[in-house]
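Recall that a protein's primary structure is simply its ordered list of amino acids. Everything else, from secondary elements to tertiary packing, is in principle encoded there. The following example makes that idea concrete.
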Amino acid sequence: MLRRLAAAATLAAAFALPAHAALKAGDVAPEFTAQASQAGKQFPFSLAAALKKGPVVLYFFPAAFTSGCTIEAHEFADASEQYKQMGATLIGITAGNIDRLTEFSVSECRSKFAVAADPDAKIAESYKSTLAIYPGHSDRTSYVISPDDKVILAYSDLSPNEHVAKTLEAVKAWRAAHPM
């Protein structure tokens, strides 16, 4: 019983620690491809291909079907039309398997945007967006990447509350400087 409590306390502490994005505005965003799912349909996602269409909002989240990640997915789903209107692609990434994310894409992302599998957290590592105390899992970090592969915004906070507002603000500012 005490071991379980100690393990639970350790895990809770890991998620209570503030996360900090290592990539900064102006950094080159690492290229990646990953298996993704939207509306229950799996497909290969390429950052390079998405950037040809406009900016990309890339958000890392720790685990599908957890409370904070579900809240965040709902908030991004609610804002998905605003991103689309500004020509931005929205994608979430986590260190999970694609079959589980296919379910998550329908139920929690409400079939509004894609989520991609990063089973070994290699993509998260390339973005320096992993939880130091919980290896193999991404932290909650949101990036906005411009079509020239540059990071416009890097925002890390394990609370899901401000990720949508911060990324929308960054996309709006970019769009104002780059009208359609």
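The chain has one domain: 2-177. The helical segments are 2-16, 47-51, 67-85, 98-107, 122-126, 163-177.
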